[in-house]
Design brief:
By secondary structure, the protein is α/β, with parallel strands linked by helices. The chain has a single domain, classed as 3-Layer(aba) Sandwich (Rossmann fold), CATH 3.40.50. The chain has six helices and twelve strands.
């Protein structure tokens, strides 16, 4: 069973649909016991960092997420879900993220001719090998929607990058924790392969 964490942060239905299309049993939930029983857990999300952290605390999900990670369950953050795994975001100064991974979220710099938010398809490069990208060649295109991006403190966890006004750490992997700034569920066949790769990882 795949638990998709529901904390009122949007983007949940498209993730649920993609997981179901891959033949998996997807459950959208904020029930701690259900999340702990899952074989895989996904934290999707779009919206503001501060609002999202407030809701994770409100629903008692911060401790549950930490327990899932500690237990070794494969865990995937998508878009805002990636950002929340880190320590802080320039979007909401003074609000702590989950701090499961080390790094900060910063605003995309203004650059002539480039619109913010960054919305669209960009190709990936792989600075380190990542299990999410098995069987997917470099320069594959995926779909982004974001105004803030990750600067990871540990370069060795960065498994994909792209460029849009800055070098964006587009995907990370550390032990059982995976995350993508882009939306695999909206990235056509490449995205479905990424999700399939995640779902094939066992504890």
């Amino acid at each position: 069973m795949v638990a998709i964490i529901d904390y009122d942060a949007g983007n949940i239905k498209s993730v649920e649909k993609a997981v179901t299309a891959l033949g998996e049993n997807a459950v959208v939930t904020r029930n701690g016991e259900e999340i702990m029983r899952a074989d895989h857990v996904i934290l999707p999300g779009v919206g503001a960092f501060g609002d999202a952290m407030e809701k994770l605390h409100k629903y008692g999900l911060v401790q549950i997420i930490r327990q899932v990670v500690d237990k070794g369950t494969p865990f995937l953050g998508i878009c805002l879900g990636l950002q929340l795994l880190f320590e802080s975001s320039d979007e909401c100064a003074g609000i702590d993220g989950l701090g499961i991974l080390h790094g900060r979220i910063v605003k995309l710099p203004e650059e002539q001719g480039l619109k913010i938010p960054h919305i669209g398809w960009n190709s990936l490069k792989y600075p380190n090998s990542g299990r999410l990208f098995a069987g997917i060649p470099e320069e594959a295109y995926v779909y982004f929607v974001h105004s803030y991006y990750l600067q990871a403190k540990e370069p060795e966890i960065v498994t994909a990058t792209t460029e849009y006004a800055a070098l964006i750490h587009a995907s990370v992997e550390k032990d059982n924790v995976f995350a993508c700034q882009f939306h695999p569920e909206k990235s056509s066949e490449v995205g479905m392969k990424i999700l399939q790769n995640f779902l094939s990882i066992s504890e």
